[in-house]
Specification:
Blueprint lengths: L1 H11 L5 H4 L9 E7 L4 H6 L3 H5 L6 H10 L3 H4 L1 H5 L6 E3 L8 E2 L7 H10 L19 H6 L8 E5 L4 H4 L2 H4 L14 H14 L5 E6 L1 H7 L3 H24 L7 E6 L18 H6 L20 E4 L13 E2 L3 H8 L4 H5 L13
Parallel strand pairs: 1-5, 1-6, 3-8, 4-5
Antiparallel strand pairs: 2-7, 6-7
Helix pairs in contact: 12-14, 13-14
The structure holds zinc ion.
Zinc ion binds next to helix 13.
C-alpha cells in the first residue's frame, strides 16, 4: 500500500512542476478537461469546514466529527490537489475572504440556469427550472463538435439525468454518458467511465465531467458527506490530471478547469443546505425545504481552479468575474476564436488572457 502511494506521488510530482505550466501558448491539438462539482460553496473550498456546522449533530453525524476535524480541518486538507495548482503555475480563484469575487449572472442560482450559462457563455433568463427541456441554446461543446477538428472528439459524463437536455445530445451529437447507455449512473460509475475514456479514447480532445454528490448530500443536510464528496472529487481530478500528464497525446497541451454551477446559502443555520435566488424561491417555493422569501443569499458566489498551457496567474481587476466568462476561457485555451462561437458571450477570464 505504502509503495503504491509513493509510486503515485512520484508520478504525480512532475504534473505539478512549474515548467510544465509555463509551456508555450495554445497551439494546434490543444485539449480540455472540464470538471464541475455541483453546488460546491467557496466557503468550504477556501475556509474548510464551518465549525458551527461540524458541531451541529443534525448536520455532522457524531461518527464523522473526528474525521472532519482531523483529516479535513482546512480547505487545503479537503481539496489538496486544487489548492496545489497556484504553486504549479495555475490558479484557484473565488476566495471572498481574500477580496476575490466570482459569481453567476443568471437570476436563478440553481443548476440548469448555471450549467447553461457556464457552457453557452451567457445567462438565459427564460430558463427558470431544472425541468427536462431540450436546451434551445448552443453550448461551446456543441459548437466544437460541429467543427472538423473536434467533431466526434467531445464527450460528456455526468451524474444528473438532466444533462442530456442541457447539452441537447440529440441535436449536438455530443455523447452524454456514452458508456452507460442512457442510464443514470452513480458518481463512482461516472468517474470510472470518464477515466476509462481518457485512457482509451486517444482522439478525444474535450472531456467534460459533471459531478453531483456535493449538491445531493447538501440537500440532505449531511455536511460530513459533502466534505467527503469534495475530497473524493479532488482525488478524482488529481488522477485525471496525472493520467493526462502521463499520456503523450494529452501532456503539455491540456488545460484543466474545475468550477461549480452555483454556490449555496451563506446565512447561519440550515441555509447552506439550499440555494436559489429570491426570484427562484418565489417561482416555486414548494421546491425548497426552507421557507424564506429572501431565497438563499450568497448562492450566486462561485469559484474556479485551472492549470495548463493556456492558463497564467493574472490580476483579476476590480469587477467581479462571472460564470459567463468560462465558455470563452475554455475556447481560448483550446486555441479557438471565442467570438466566432458567440461575440456576445462573456469574454475570457483574466487567467486565460482576457482582461
Ligand atoms: Zn441543488
Amino acid at each position: 500500500m505504502h509503495r503504491i502511494v509513493l509510486a503515485l506521488a512520484l508520478l504525480f510530482a512532475p504534473a505539478l512542476a512549474p515548467e510544465l505550466a509555463r509551456a508555450e501558448a495554445p497551439a494546434a491539438g490543444q485539449r480540455l478537461i472540464l470538471v464541475t462539482m455541483d453546488g460546491t460553496r467557496w466557503q468550504e473550498v477556501f475556509r474548510g469546514p464551518d465549525k458551527a456546522l461540524v458541531a451541529e449533530p443534525k448536520f455532522t453525524h457524531p461518527d464523522w466529527k473526528e474525521t472532519v476535524e482531523k483529516a479535513w480541518s482546512t480547505g487545503a486538507a479537503v481539496m489538496p490537489f486544487v489548492h496545489s495548482l497556484p504553486a504549479a503555475g495555475g490558479v484557484l480563484y473565488g476566495n471572498r475572504d481574500a477580496g476575490e469575487c466570482m459569481r453567476v449572472t443568471n437570476p436563478m442560482w440553481f443548476s440548469y440556469p448555471g450549467y447553461n450559462e457556464l457552457l453557452t457563455g451567457r445567462p438565459d433568463p427564460a430558463i427558470t427550472s431544472n425541468d427536462k427541456i431540450w436546451n434551445r441554446n448552443t453550448t461551446f461543446l456543441e459548437w466544437l463538435n460541429r467543427r472538423p477538428a473536434f467533431a466526434g472528439h467531445v464527450r460528456m459524463y455526468g451524474t444528473w439525468d438532466v444533462f442530456p437536455y442541457i447539452i441537447n445530445d440529440k441535436r449536438s451529437g455530443v455523447p452524454v454518458n456514452a458508456e452507460s447507455a442512457g442510464a443514470h449512473p452513480t458518481e463512482t460509475r461516472t468517474m470510472r467511465d470518464a477515466q476509462a475514456a481518457l485512457r482509451s479514447a486517444a482522439d478525444m480532445r474535450v472531456l467534460y465531467v459533471a459531478l453531483g454528490d456535493t449538491d445531493e448530500f447538501a440537500h440532505e443536510g449531511d455536511y460530513a458527506q459533502v466534505l467527503a464528496a469534495m475530497n473524493r472529487d479532488d482525488d478524482f481530478i488529481a488522477e485525471l490530471w496525472r493520467m493526462a500528464q502521463a499520456d503523450p497525446a494529452w501532456r503539455g497541451r491540456t488545460t484543466l478547469i474545475v468550477t461549480t454551477d452555483h454556490g449555496r446559502g451563506a446565512k447561519p443555520g440550515a441555509a447552506w443546505t439550499e440555494h436559489g435566488s429570491a426570484a427562484a424561491w418565489k417561482l416555486a417555493p414548494a421546491d425548497y425545504t426552507i421557507a424564506d422569501p429572501e431565497g438563499f443569499p450568497g448562492s450566486d458566489a462561485i469559484w474556479l481552479a485551472a492549470i495548463g498551457p493556456g492558463v497564467r496567474p493574472a490580476a483579476a481587476g476590480t469587477d467581479c468575474l462571472t460564470q459567463s466568462q468560462i465558455a470563452a476561457s475554455a475556447l481560448t485555451a483550446l486555441g479557438e476564436d471565442w467570438k466566432a462561437f458567440d461575440a456576445g458571450a462573456g469574454a475570457p477570464l483574466p487567467f486565460f488572457g482576457g482582461r
